[in-house]
Amino acid sequence: MSVVGFDVGFLNCYVAVARAGGIETVANEYSDRCTPACVSFGPRNRAIGAAAKSQIVTNCKNTVQGFKRLHGRAFTDPYVQRLKNSLVYDIVQMPTGTTGIKVNYMEEEKVFSVEQVTAMLLTKLKETAEHALKKPVADCVVSVLSTACDPELGGKDFDEMLVRYFCEDFSKKYKIDVKSRPRALIRVYQECEKLKRVMSANSSDLPFNIECLMNDIDVSGKMNRGQFEEMCADILARIEAPLQNLLEHAKLKREDIYAVEIVGGASRIPAVKERISKFFGKELNTTLNADEAVARGCALQCAILSPAFKVREFSITDVVTYPISLKWPSAAEEGLSDCEVFPMNHAAPFSKVLTFYRKEPFSLEAYYNKPSELCYPDPTIGQFLIQKVIPQASGESSKVKVKVRVNIHGIFSVSSASLVEVQKSDETEEPMETEHANEKEGEVTILLLHPTTTEEGKGEKKSDQPPQAKKPKVKTKVVELPIENSPQWQLADDMLNLFVENEGKMIMQDKLEKERNDAKNYVEEYVYEMRDKLHGVLEKFVSESVNALSLKLEDTENWLYEDGEDQPKQVYIDKLTELKKLGQPIKERYTEAEMRPKAFEELGKQIQQYMKFVEAFKMKDEQYDHLDEADVKKVDKLTSDAMMWMNSSMNQQSKQNLTVDPSVKVKDIEAKTRELFSACNSIVTKPKPRVELPKEDNPAEQNGPVNGQEKAPEEAASKAATENPGSENKPDMDLD
After folding, report:
1. Judging by beta carbons within 10 Å of its beta carbon (0-12, 13-18, 19+), is residue 97 exposed, middle or buried?
2. Pairwise CA distance, residues 48 & 122, whole Å
3. Which PROSITE patterns match (predicted)?
4. How far is the C-alpha of 365 from the C-alpha of 385, rounded, in Å?
5. Going edge to edge, which strands form the sheet with 380-386?
6. What pLDDT band is residue 469 in, cutting at 50, 70 and 90?
7. CB atoms < 10 A from the CB of 399, how many?
8. How far is residue 245's CA from residue 224's CA, in Å, rounded to a whole number?
9. 47 pLDDT more than 90
10. How far, in Å, CA of 515 to CA of 509, rounded?
11. 596 CB neighbour count, 10 Å cutoff
12. What's the number of CA atoms in the CB half-sphere (13 Å) around residue 102?
């Protein structure tokens, strides 16, 4: 099971994984741990991440970035309308009222939802994680759910101030409207982001130059940190508000804070650090990697949740960020009733059971009850219709139990509803039972009695009734009720399935296009490689057909940039095959010539080794006196034959022209070496037979040589000590 954390940022993303006993941030295919949150749409495929960012100028209208802030917002949202002016791509209203992104993809105009574009980016991050882990990734933790925040306070907002300043400056100095040209505007954004980073480390005046920004005009300007902070005073003033909210929600005072750790790219801005430090009255900690800390934290949380990882005892309790209430039509009087079911900072995941008394279907509306604290203007979560509610057989209201839940993802839902049907029996009598709260961990029962039910209860109670009166035995039957869910911004199941299907098709299209481009690149690489080598290392191995091959390479190169610019994959494969028919024999002759001397050398060493063995046997070397003479003669003959074959092959090859195929190939020489080794080695390395002597003749009990070998010194010393008990077995000298 994989353990992965994703930090999906406004401009960049990071992927962290848990492995080898720790958490690490992994690199993408460009060996960069930072992946731009960018998706580019082309005529044949999509580019995502770093590949997309490289097209941000050349394909600006179809390259999407900064879409994170569009999530969950209606197209008519004032924030979306303000943001629209700074976007170089087009956004439109979707049928559901949400914001869509209009691009040109596969030569057609397409509109993608923000969720679809985000899914594309997540697909890329998933591929990066899978490549690092070498296994599929199915579950992950993604950073989304902050404790106190300001959605308009981030690195991008500082960039906007710089862009606005320089656009106005260039308008006055050069009489150009940068915002009228998307490409020019993007280049200004890119340079402003770089300038912001440099100013964090440098307080002096810094140049701002862009060549040929528009209308062949080179522009220049300058900025220093003091000017920048003065320009961004309004943004910097917003830093304190979320910090104050954070303390209020946590019910802490500033002096209760032990340490403050800052993360995020914008935390490097000196003015931001200064204000946070001043607010808490403490020096800030920067022990974590400001860019990667969130992704690493996500991976740690994923490891905690995963049953496959054992994590040091460490508890994290998620909370409900904003208070959630339910409201419903009141049955007693016209109007609405409401109830806060999950207050702010309530633990999550958590379930609660609400009890209603109703005679007919009813609806519940979930909403955030403090709209002023929300990041979005619409506090509505969704509508939930409890269906098939009917009265009891007696005509009384039925008890309906509704279970509401905030799950591990922080998403609110009405998870189930059930009707308690009362069935009376006259068989026996026993006291009335009262309902008890569900005591399961993480669940609470709330009893909601509307006035009509309360009055009915009072009417039934009689003052002269004995305190322990018997009632007929009551049987109950629980009936599950269907719920019609209408979340405000959640995708419908059919739409979600359609999006998943479309994403699968686009992934396949990207894969096919990559294979097509790879096939084209292989042809191009082969052309350049062979063209250079034909007049280099391969030159002396080329026959008279070199002109034919050179012409073929030249024709192929021209074809690649003309008719071959956009061809199917199979066409490139066939073209490469044609070239290799002419070029491969030349490369093989070169390879043979390079490897042949070494192969002959190895064979020669083998022959020399066995020739020395035969000579040693003939000289009555004791090492080989146990071998059979016939076997040695066999080795002698095989060695002589191999020597003759090698000399003949070398002589024949020396007369061979390098432009024709070799008379003997490396594989033949290597086969001859293996053949000689397998035939002779078992004879040469045959061990001497071991001689077992009778017990009385055991050399351990004798003080003499056995088979021409002396006893071990230790054994001789031991024997001497036994025969002369009074003597001492001492060394010749003492060693300190």
Report:
1. middle
2. 10
3. HSP70_3 (PS01036)
4. 9
5. 336-342, 324-329, 362-368, 380-386, 483-487
6. low
7. 20
8. 32
9. yes
10. 10
11. 18
12. 9
The whole-angstrom separation of Cα 641 and Cα 76 is 93
Q: Which residues pair with 8 in a beta bridge?
A: 13
Taking the C-alpha atoms of residue 505 and residue 520, their distance in angstroms, rounded to an integer, is 23
Residue 456 has pLDDT above 70, yes or no: no
Phi, psi for 32 (deg, rounded to 5): -120, 130
Joined together, the tokens standing for residue 521 give 């690149």
Cα dihedral 34, 38, 39, 42 in deg (nearest 10) = -100
Query: Distance between CA 629 and CA 618 in Å, rounded?
Result: 9
Three-class secondary structure of residue 199 per DSSP: helix
The full DSSP string for 260-324 is -B--SGGGGSHHHHHHHHHHHTSPPB--S-TTTHHHHHHHHHHHHH-TT----S----EE-SS-E
The C-alpha atoms of residue 136 and residue 664 are separated, in whole angstroms, by: 49
CA-wise closest residue to 538 among 597, 591, 590, 592: 590
Q: Tell me: pLDDT of 715 over 80.
A: no
What one-letter code names the amino acid at 123? T
Q: Alpha-carbon distance 349 to 209, whole Å?
A: 52
DSSP string over 393-451: TTSPPEEEEEEEEE-TTS-EEEEEEEEEEEEEEEEEEEPPPPP----STTEEEEE---H
pLDDT band, residue 443 (cuts 50/70/90): very low
| Burial 519-538, CB ≥16 within 10 A → b, else e | bbeebbebbeebbebbeeeb
Rounded-to-10 torsion of CA 450, 455, 461, 464: 150
* Interatomic CA distance for residues 489 and 113, integer angstroms: 12
Is-contact 659 668, C-beta < 8 A?
Answer: no
Count CB-CB contacts under 10 A for residue 396. Answer: 15
Q: How far separated are the first and last CA of the chain, in Å rounded?
A: 62
Map residue 19 onto helix, strand or coil. Answer: strand
Query: Which is more confident, 734 or 151?
Result: 151
